Amino acid sequence: MPTAKTHPRRTGPTSAMRAMEPHIYTAILASTFITAFPNLVSDPASTLLWTLPGLALLQAIYQVRCLRVLKPASPSGTGRKEGMGVSSKIISSFLTTLFATTIGTAALYVLLVLFGAPVTTHVLPTLLCAMHASLLAVAPLVYKYRLEGRIWREILGGRAVIEECFAGAVGMLVGAWVGAVPIPLGTDREWQKWPVTIVTGAYIGYTVGKSLGWAYSGKRLPL
C-alpha cells in the first residue's frame, strides 16, 4: 500500500532568522538614534518630533513580528502565549501605540516633572521626550501583557520575570535617570540642553536592557 509522502518541516535558516529579528530591530533603533543625534543636539524639539513617526512604526513592526501576547495560566503561573492572526496583531499594535502616545505619555510627562523637568518652559521638548520614552518602554509591555492586573503589579513592583520588554523598560528608566546627571553641571555645552541627555540615556538604557533581558530571560530581579 503506498504511503503518503511527508515533507520535512523546514527549520534552520528561517528559524535562525526569526530568532535574530529582535536583535535586528534593536540594531536599527540604535543606528537610527546615532544618526539623528547631531540634529538632536542642535534642535531637540524638532528632531524629537520628526523622528517620532519612525519610532512608532519601528516599535509597531517589532511588536507584530517578535512579540506574542502573554496571559496568566494561573494565579501563580508565569503565563501562556496566545496565538493571534496578522490582522489582530496589527489592530492590537495600533491600539497599543495609541495608548502609549496618550496615557503612557501623560504618565511619563508627570514623572519627568516630578523629577525636576521644567514646568513653565520647554513644555514641548519634555512632552516629546515622554512620548519617545513611552513608545520605547510602555508600548511593548502593553502589547504583550495587555492590562492584566497581576502582571502589571509585578512590573511596577520590579518583580516581573525578566524578558526583553520588561528589561528594556527598566533599562529606559535607569538610563533616563542617569542621563539627568550632566544637566545641572553648568558647563553650558550644547549636548547638555534639555532634554538631550535624558533622551540619550533612555535610548541607551533601553537597548542595553532589552539585550540583557534576552540574555537573562526567565530570571527575576534580586529585589
From TrEMBL:
Pathway: Glycolipid biosynthesis; glycosylphosphatidylinositol-anchor biosynthesis. It is found in: Endoplasmic reticulum membrane. One of its GO terms (biological process) is GPI anchor biosynthetic process. Keywords: Endoplasmic reticulum, GPI-anchor biosynthesis, Membrane, Transmembrane, Transmembrane helix. Its main location: endoplasmic reticulum. It comes from Tuber melanosporum (strain Mel28). GO terms for cellular component: endoplasmic reticulum membrane. This is (Perigord truffle) hypothetical protein. InterPro entries: GPI_biosynthesis_protein_Pig-F. It is a multi-pass membrane protein. The chain crosses the membrane at residues 91-117, 123-143. It comes from the Eukaryota. Signal peptide: none annotated.
